[in-house]
Design goal:
globular, 28% strand, Rossmann fold, 7-stranded mixed β-sheet, alpha/beta
Amino acid sequence: MPKENTLSIFLPSEKHTNLLAKIIAKIIEPNHIILLEGGLGVGKTTLARALIRNLFNDENLEVPSPSFALVQPYEKRNIKIIHADLYRLNNETEIEELGLLDEMEAIIIVEWGQNAPQMAKFANFKIEMELSKKANGRIAKIICYNEFESFTKLKLALEQAGINNKN
């Protein structure tokens, strides 16, 4: 079982979601896998779009949801990103057919990661999104697997940005 480092943060607005994406974009590396989990409307696609735009340093980049295509690849300035949406996945065995693990130099961002639990053993980060029950906004629970240095950088960057751990 991989070692986990976890923190939860409150995201009161899309602006805060974008800030989280900006911070994560500075930490992740090629061949990292980021799983985004949670129900409908909790902000997975918003976070994925912001993350991709920050990785490419292009806030106007068109980032369509891969809901129908299942996988949307991006490549720019020697950065490869595979953005997948597993909402319509019928069976976990379809993961191999999608080729998500074939691009070892790519950053893989997977929405609806909970529909493919076997992906967790390959993931570097998992972000569980949910609507806050106490206030308008979202809660993002960030789990870093075997990424202590990345976790430490993330925690420090969030504190410096004024986003506090809710644990």
